[in-house]
Amino acid sequence: MQQLMNVEAEGFVIGSLLRNNDGLDAVIDFLTPDDFCDPLMGAAYTLISQEVAQGRGANPVTIGPRLREAGPFDDRNPVVVLAELTTSIFAGMSPTTSARTVADLAKRRRFVDGIDTSLRMALDLNTDLRDVAVAADQNVAAALRLGVARSSMLLSEAWRAAVERIRQIRAGEIQSSLRLVGLSDVEDVTGGIRPGDFILLGGRPSMGKTALSLGIARRAAEAGQGVLFISREMNTPQLMPRMIADLMFESHSHVTFDRILKGEVTDDDFAVMAEIEARIAAWPLVIDDPTDLNAGQIASLIRRHQRAFAARGQQLDLVIIDYLGLVDPPPNGRQNRNEEVSAISRAIKDAARSCDVAIITLTQLNRSVEQRDDKRPMLSDLRDSGSLEQDADVVVFVYRDEYYLGRAEPPAGDKKYEQWQLDMTAARDRVDIYSAKVRQGAITGRKGYFFGTRQAIRNSDYYRTGY
Fold first, then answer.
1. Who wins on pLDDT, 382 or 286?
2. Is the dihedral of CA 201, 204, 208, 209 positive or negative?
3. Model-wide pTM > 0.85
């Protein structure tokens, strides 16, 4: 790969740094020793970094002899080579531009190596094609990663960055969290949905988890934020009638979810559907229903969609996974279900941070909830919890008292029947959405509305605002 190296640029970087060690601060966050194609330059960069870190000066005299011991480097004398680079007429200039050239060429070499590795894997018929796809995506991501991951920061730097972010939020230049048009209850309960957040949305069956998650997805997309909905429970044709029913309800159509499934719609209904289609055409919402998905593939899948969003001039901000129990564990032989759930949970958490997106993951609850008088979920109800509670930044539960009351109707002549009617009237179409953990805020709750026949979740102030 002769065309993917620039010996002159590498020499210029080293010469410049030897002449002015302070220049290291401008390049150390994105340039590594492995980026140098010339092993002598890479070894010199390592020693310069070490000397500067120890508070000592790096120059041909201090590092040259150590390089000579580390050699040989094609019979070159490191002391002589470094002295020549330092005395070059260009050595006094900033090394940043040349350093970026060196780093860019290194990424390109790794990209080509990754493609070559993937090609050899693909030609091996004993290798699972899914493993080939994941490895190829990881190779691409590693090659294109921008600079060296920086995990440490001086307090003063962190302070300035935080204050600048506060200023940008105040000035309206950036949002403090994702906006959910018409679902401010969810914003309140979660304390705000931000990049890197891992949010669990839990509830027993028939509580409205899918309706709420689809509502969050389309409300975020309506505000212009990129959304990826990963559905393992239902395929896209099964999901879409639910979203159609919700949006038709918003458009004041009387058609129900059940009638949509049966095709019992009128010409007027089709006209409304056409109007909605025109409105949602620009929404950056993608539904992916993979037939199989393991924890190790989540970050790879998200990165692939991030590139697709970027190609359309959009940004992926939110990922929703429906649901955690249908994500397979990494293929590493774990047997205990708690260990498997912990591995899945950690993979989702890592994906949220590494891909810089918020991830909402639906999860089922233990059946033991059904044995209690008070069936409102709590953290201990998380199924096969493993480290779910620990890994999650936010845990939100969905609960409908109407569901349980409807299954406990006493006989009409029973003395409890009148009270049951009162309770049923109070609970009709209501849904409790509340947090049990919020890492960055206080736990709270809202009593919103769930219109089951329309698959629609609405805010607690719906009858006042229309949302």
1. 286
2. positive
3. no
